Amino acid sequence: MLFLVQLTKQAADPREGTLKKTSSTTLAQSNRDLEKAERPAGFDLREYLTSSNDKNQAAGIKHKNVGVVWEDLEVKVGGGLDSKFYVGTLATSTLYFFIGPFFSLWTLISGLLGLNKTRETKTILQKSSGALKPGEMCLVLGCPGAGCTTFLRTIANRREGYENINGKVLYSGIDASEMQKHYKGEVVYNQEDDIHIPTLTVSQTLRFALSTKTPGPDGRLPGISRENFDREIQDTFLRMLNISHTKNTLVGDEFVRGVSGGERKRVSIAEMNGHPGPRPVLGQFHKRIGCLDGTRLRAESPSNDRRPRPDDIHHSASESIYELFDKKPGLTSKASDTSPYPAKRLQTTLRDAPMRTNASLLQGRSKSDVPATPSALEKAFRQSRFGQENDAAVKEYKRYMEMEKGEQEAFRTAVAADKKRGVSKKSPYTLGFTGQVWALTKRQFQTRLQDRFQIYTSFTIALALAFVLGGAFYDQANNIVWGVHTRKRYLLRSPHDELGRLRQSTASTGPSALALANLIADLPFSSLRILLFNIVAFFRMFGLICFSFDSAMRLAVFFIPNFIAYSGFMIPVDSMKKALKWIYYVDPVSYAWQAAMENEFKRITLICDGSSVIPRNILSLVTKYPDQLSVNQVCTLFGSTEGSAVISGTEYLKAGFNLDPKNMWRRNLPVLIAFFVAFEIAQILALEYYPQYGFNTALSFFVHDTDETRRLNAEQEEKKARRSQIREKEQRRQVGHRFLEGKAASETGRPLTWERLNYHVPSTDGDGGQKRLLHDVYGFVKPGTLTALMGASGAGKTTCLDVLAQRKNIGVITGDILELHMRSKWMSTKGTATVREAMRFSAYLRQPANVSKEEKDAYVEEMIELLELQDLTEALVFSLNIEARKRLTIGVELASKPELLLFLDEPTSGLDAQSAWNLVRFLRKLADQGQAILCTIHQPSSLLFESFDRLLLLERGGETVYFGDIGPDSRVLRTYFAKHGAVCPGNVNPAEYMLEAIGAGVAPRVGDKDWKDVWLESAEYQAVRARDRLHQGRWSGEDRYATPFWYQLRLVSARNAVALWRSPEYIFTRIFVCTCISFFVSLSFLQLGNSVRELQFRVFAIFWVIVLPAMVMSQIEPMFIYNRRTFIRESSSRIYSPYVFAIGQVLGEIPYSILCALLYWVLMVFPIGFGDGAAGTNGTGFQLLIIIFMILFGVTLGQMVAALSPSVQIAVLFNPFLGLVLSTFCGVTIPYPQLLGFWRSWLYELNPYTRTLGAMVSTELHGLVINCKPDEWAIFNPPAGQTCGDWAQEFVSVAGGYIDNLNDTIACRYCQFRVGDEFYTPLNIDFGNRWRDAFILFSFFVFNLIVTIVASRFLRYAWR
């Protein structure tokens, strides 16, 4: 198997050090600290691998020794050399929606006719050739943007997202297409981001990976069961990667507290390996792993015993890591091949420089001694003897692959032996389909069971909803028409859950197996919820065939409203438009509703009395009619017979809906099962064959230039051209003077001091439910100094930085943090802003208000020049690569002109050696001018390390090992360690050696005493404790904002408006939802007349307005919570207040909400024919106002729910509950007279939907004259000798309606309503209260906004 992992460093996870840690040595004390675990004694990986290899050979198990050859490999993406990809806006998305189908049709036709032009492309990886034999490791070096990741992705056979890939890649003679088809599980790419299910433990994560890759009986030693094999391999990986102590700890992520960032990277390495063995590995696994740890991983990796080794990528490799690799090809900024030859020959072509590693030498030479341009470097290499030797090696190894098939056959045999019984030899999977389903089902169960809060919340809401709706429809009568109608409405109630999907990028399991696993895992949970509620609906398929939530929502909105409208309840079958009637027959909801109706009514008998009898007695007002149904009265219920008050439910169904209970089993249930199976098959096919890859991270998206940005970019280009003519040393001197002008040097300011700093967090595996992450940490940061915070992965570096920056809001912090008017800064950016906009936003809000806008803009341009971001000024942040984003986040902080204290979390991670040196050099200049800087740092070179003044070194458990000066050439630090028995050799990087000395890696510590104890007994520790703290005050944690409230609100609102405009999918989906619902509703109710049925249709059309908040909420909540995460990161810098954040979120939504309301109103009012009542056209204008208020209510309700919820998964659980409860108790679903007194007394009155329907229905129906159609008359015969008027006029005068033939003596025709007012008056609706109801609805909008603001202030759910 080829295993490709990214090694690029990046900022450590904020929760680094928050879990159980392994101590650096085996402690002799029996009462050792709880957060430390003993390292397994006597584990020798080389010995283990050697013995395992011997046993495998003795058992006849073949090795997977695969070499790789790439010849003239070239990668291209869409777009020309100077082309840019521009981000879409609402305008472009709307335009494409209308012209897109025609464009696609033209593309199809022109393609068939051969008229398509060749698409313009851009080469991002120039032609490159090389060979990697079994037993060799290859380190890919290059500056960010040079194509290192593209190269590795291509070698790892991850070819999606690129326009063209030319050249050949052979794996022991097997071409890329065959490798992808039959052996894709043997070539694995591990990306930079660690993607795991955060609620699974490390053990569960690895056991799942092993369960899908465990060899079959022919691939294991005799007598070794699968369980024992998996257990041994898992324990081996945990010990090899030194994470045995995390076995039962959650993996976690950015928002779920789990293992540290470095430990999570180790989990990724173990998971991708599947099981250790002789297999080729492509690796890039240095991200979040310390330099010493990375060295140990390579030195003791499975590849170190002449087995296939990793191909590795790094931007800033240390010398110790560099020396472990056999080959080191370098890539220039234009992705040209420069030096893919053995490392031992490197120094024969390039002379080394003092204090620089070979890795940085390849990246940072100047054009005075080597060819400086990418093309010149490539040409020099190809013309050198090393290039010629490389070409010869490629040809020789390629010829070897063609002639000698033994290696290839051994590989094929080994892969076949690994497969379980019954798995096809052509299948790329080790496990069969049923085995995959079982493994995924187990994982789904574990995931759901361990996310207990969501389980409790979902079941509580479902149970509450069942009780509320059950109470609302409690004891519905069988003897009146209201009981029949409410039963029908209840059977249509149906909440649904939004379900996600996890993409599979390896051959561990097939994507289709995930669909079945989700189904099986859902069954017990959904079944129990079914018992609590009754009906569950699945629309998971929409999510599988869409690349975004918004596109899935548009697809769902296209189907769901029509499914509901054409279920047979809202629009009777006979009243459906002929052109749309086919929807009823393909609608799964209609079959479900039919089955539910048949099941409910077949068992009941209806008694015709009360309001279903015409004419009848009405209290004491009318008493002349018989109390029992007589021959001179008529029952208006379907299925009634003359003279009989009893109607069977079966007859009611047949007469009213043409339904037969016999069809429940013979038609409806089979059809529903068929739909279910069809949807499940569609899911499987979608996952298996539909492309699942999404956004290509190799592309940057830009915004179009304005006159201002065009002018500024031209100035930047001029500066860049002038600077290239200045010698490097001269340039560095000028940079410092320009950007530090006006800063007064100060080394006598008040330092930030911390004493006895302890930090405990809640934990089930700690002592007394608490785990200690920091223990008695002392230190200080003086103005004018640069202090480094270092330690192994899990030592608590980022935790300590977070505590000092007051970013922690969980756990208990004890000790003293002392300062005097210090302002702390932290990095953050928003993804939809451009580079220049992000830096300007920071400068505008964080520099003092008395600094002019022009000065702030000029300073931002200087920062752009310093950080060399000139080519990316108009690029959007979300599309930047890691290196550019790192530079930007630093620029965002520097743009604020930090006054005294600056916190940085791994500022050099992800940067190449030269960029890291430039950045640290600039930080050094900032410190020299009086800035106090504290930063965590991984893998510093000797040169970088010497730039720091002091060091705070931590070991696992948050224990201090050293705090003090570093000194020139690290002399002070070397002296301290040498004094205690750890002498650093002169040719070793002291930053690496000190970590090795304290036992932070795999090797034992130096000395027989724990270094934390050495520190506590040292004179240096006593000196730190004895520092003068005079005139220092305790850190209050409060700080004023740099700018006033209204200025903050203006800028934040403007940024939100721009972000929404550049999020066309989000806004266009909102518009699509509103227009689509209104359009299809209007299409079903075109040009309504004035009959009784059409009166009801008018009410149904209005009723769809209250569906809008539910649709809007499901879209608003994810966006609000995403923006809240950005605010939480920015709030640590006190850049703007939480009140500004909440208000800004609403202000950004208002213009689009008004636009949506206007479109909905236009498509509703005119096609349906509203405005025929007494209110006229003025009434339709009032309807627009109500729709605007209603959409604004939905927006703020969604934001309120999101503000009160910790996550999107929790927030969406409340949507069905709120939607169903509000729509049920508004007085229409259950008519006001039939509402129980308990609900009528408070919930009905507090319901905003009550006000919406009351205002809109009364406006539309007031004064609307009703004319019954022939099939709507209630026909009865008066007693002999009486006319229709004589017999029924008394009833009509009280009950309303009219008799069409007053003077007839037979077949009296009674119409239920004369005017629309008679319909809504019994529902407690009054036309005179419509303005009152409108402003009560507006008050609900205001209430939601107030709650959102308060919740944003006090509930941030950032449990860090």
TrEMBL record:
One of its GO terms (molecular function) is ATP binding. InterPro entries: AAA+_ATPase, ABC2_TM, ABC_transporter-like_ATP-bd, ABCG_dom, ABCG_PDR_2, P-loop_NTPase, PDR_CDR_ABC. The keyword Repeat does not apply. CDD domains: ABCG_PDR_domain2. The keyword Membrane applies. It is a multi-pass membrane protein. It is found in: Membrane. GO terms for cellular component: membrane. Keywords: ATP-binding, Membrane, Nucleotide-binding, Transmembrane, Transmembrane helix, Transport. Residues 15-36, 294-314, 326-345, 713-732 are annotated as: Disordered. Residues 20-31 have a biased composition (Polar residues). It comes from the Eukaryota. The chain crosses the membrane at residues 95-115, 453-474, 528-548, 555-573, 669-690, 1067-1089, 1095-1114, 1135-1162, 1182-1204, 1211-1232, 1334-1355. Residues 295-314 have a biased composition (Basic and acidic residues). Belongs to the ABC transporter superfamily. ABCG family. PDR (TC 3.A.1.205) subfamily. This is Pleiotropic drug resistance ABC transporter. It comes from Coprinellus micaceus.
